[in-house]
């Protein structure tokens, strides 16, 4: 058979998830000939298998909708997992879709080999290649896990049957959201997290708030324990043995122990790039892939989960926009300091920037202040009559010397919306003086920010007066 000569385009993007699709469309709108290589669905995980179905199931659970109806609503939200609409959007922007599995080949010019359906292959040559291959779930090292019925988050978000009893392994955002969704839709849920708190990495009170929230939804939360061994229970389910001597019986085990970058067989190193210890593609602040010596590899870029930097759709989108801006000749760098970290339980949490502990480790002289939502006028409006029963609050973390806001955590009703003010404060490096002067609407939840920043400002002025005396 005569080999097909390589096709030359301006840009090849491997992976059409949140990051790759946006990068391809932005670059095509600049007039470049872009080939987008995708081996599954155009759009990647977010619209079909992660963000959208997770939020749909959570909202159904919060609304008390029965499981079967929640499945119907979810399937509508994910458009039946049909990517026709997304494909049409690509066409409108002039992006050429290549269905198949792509990998970089060694040498120059940059060449991507695509395994096409039916055993054929195509080679694409290009001055620019963007890697946007996403991530896959990590399988925790639990002996015997392969012998019992397990789910990944994808399975849980496509399932049409509800397990009577579900064991969730991992108390990060996936574990917390899916525990509340399934508990609300009628499963008995046990959540096991090996760290001492849920949402490890966030402030301790945020983890405790989440544990209280989930327990209030009927989830049995067990922190500080690790699953060690699993075995079939003889009735189609699982018995999972924990390192505290306990065991959990369940019809299904949902594996929610994190995700790892999908860099296997992508050819990153062959093309001169490098991977970090977690297998993520190493990039600089302009999303240029770095060589083992730390220099940008000409023409090679990466965005999204495959970079492991900040594994959210909004971060993948930010990276894609930075890449496109630089391609258009404008100099722009990524800034992850104010990327929101929200968990969409009811009530939700919204964190941004550094926790007080992280700020101290980064060398700041730290001050922080909390204010509970229950003490707001708004709390008295919702018919409880006793504000203390409205859980949650806001914590603002500042540099004590400059007063600049370094981070914040918001937990409680609608925190995923009103927390945005603090994300902008972190991004714009605002100080507490300005936040104290800022006027918030009477009877909004955002009024909680005022007492916290007013107290931080008062302490700062006091310190300044003492220093001047
Ligand atoms: C349960 C869950 C809920 C989440 N909820 C949220 C949320 O509410 N908000 C939020 O911001 N983030 C959320 N996330 C994270 C979000 O889903 C990811 O950060 C985002 O989807 C990453 O996009 P991406 O472009 O990097 O990759 P993906 O969406 O993973 O897309 C990568 C694409 O590349 C394709 N691909 C891979 N390798 C190749 C190859 N060699 N050749 C061809 N194609 C290839 C894959 O088929 C896939 O379509 C959630 C994640 C999970 C698991
Ligand atoms: N609302 C959102 O934006 C949203 C929602 C879901 C996921 N995401 C994204 O997806 C990524 C992956 O989420 P995730 O929750 O899978 O990962 P994660 O890394 O955030 O959390 C995994 C948790 O599992 C625990 N764990 C690991 N092995 C364990 C074991 N054997 N036993 C008990 N606990 C164990 C870890 O200590 C950790 O707390 C997140 O980092 C986030 O970026 C975002």
From TrEMBL:
Segments forming domain FAD/NAD(P)-binding: 10-320
UniProt cross-references to Gene3D superfamilies, sorted A to Z: 3.30.390.30, FAD/NAD(P)-binding domain
Entry keyword set: FAD, Flavoprotein
Cofactor: FAD
Pyridine nucleotide-disulphide oxidoreductase dimerisation domain boundaries: 339-449
Tree of life domain: Bacteria
Record-linked InterPro entries: FAD/NAD-bd_sf, FAD/NAD-binding_dom, FAD/NAD-linked_Rdtase_dimer_sf, Pyr_nuc-diS_OxRdtase, Pyr_nucl-diS_OxRdtase_dimer
Annotated family: Belongs to the class-I pyridine nucleotide-disulfide oxidoreductase family.
Protein name stated in the entry: NAD(P)/FAD-dependent oxidoreductase
Organism, as annotated: Kineococcus glutinatus
The organism's taxonomic lineage, starting at the top: Bacteria, Bacillati, Actinomycetota, Actinomycetes, Kineosporiales
């Amino acid at each position: 058979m005569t080999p097909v000569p390589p096709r030359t385009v301006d840009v090849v993007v491997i992976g059409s998830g949140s990051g790759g699709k946006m990068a391809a469309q932005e670059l095509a709108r600049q007039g470049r000939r872009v080939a987008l290589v995708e081996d599954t669905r155009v759009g990647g995980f977010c619209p079909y298998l992660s963000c959208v179905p997770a939020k749909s199931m959570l909202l159904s659970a919060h609304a008390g909708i029965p499981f079967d109806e929640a499945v119907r609503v979810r399937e509508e939200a994910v458009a039946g997992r049909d990517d026709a609409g997304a494909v049409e959007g690509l066409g409108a922007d002039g992006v050429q879709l290549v269905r198949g599995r792509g990998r970089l080949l060694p040498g120059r010019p940059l060449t991507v080999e695509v395994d096409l359906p039916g055993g054929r292959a195509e080679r694409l040559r290009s001055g620019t290649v963007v890697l946007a291959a996403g991530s896959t779930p990590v399988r925790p090292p639990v002996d015997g896990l392969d012998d019992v019925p397990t789910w990944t988050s994808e399975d849980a978000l496509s399932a049409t049957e509800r397990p009577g009893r579900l064991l969730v392994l991992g108390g990060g955002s996936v574990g917390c959201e899916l525990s509340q969704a399934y508990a609300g839709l009628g499963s008995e849920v046990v959540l096991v997290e090996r760290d001492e708190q849920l949402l490890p990495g966030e402030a301790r009170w945020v983890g405790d708030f989440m544990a209280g929230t989930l327990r209030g939804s009927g989830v049995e939360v067990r922190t500080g324990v690790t699953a060690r061994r699993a075995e079939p229970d003889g009735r189609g389910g699982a018995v999972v043995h924990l390192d505290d001597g306990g065991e959990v019986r369940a019809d299904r085990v949902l594996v929610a122990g994190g995700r790892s970058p999908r860099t296997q067989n992508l050819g990153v190193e062959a093309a001169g790039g490098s991977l970090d210890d977690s297998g993520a593609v190493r990039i600089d602040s302009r999303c240029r892939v770095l060589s083992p010596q730390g220099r940008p590899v000409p023409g090679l870029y990466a965005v999204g989960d495959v970079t492991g930097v900040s594994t959210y759709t909004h971060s993948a989108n930010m990276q894609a926009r930075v890449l496109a801006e630089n391609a258009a000749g404008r100099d722009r760098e990524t800034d992850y300091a104010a990327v929101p970290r929200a968990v969409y339980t009811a009530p939700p949490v919204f964190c941004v920037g550094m926790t007080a502990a992280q700020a101290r480790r980064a060398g700041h002289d730290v001050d922080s202040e909390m204010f509970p939502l229950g003490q707001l006028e708004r709390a008295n409006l919702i018919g409880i009559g006793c504000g203390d029963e409205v859980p949650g609050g806001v914590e603002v973390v500042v540099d004590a010397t400059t007063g600049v806001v370094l981070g914040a955590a918001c937990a409680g009703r609608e925190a995923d919306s009103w927390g945005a003010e603090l994300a902008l404060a972190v991004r714009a490096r605002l100080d507490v003086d300005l936040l104290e002067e800022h006027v918030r609407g009477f009877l909004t939840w955002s009024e909680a920010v005022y007492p916290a920043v007013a107290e931080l400002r008062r302490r700062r002025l006091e310190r300044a007066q003492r220093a001047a005396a």
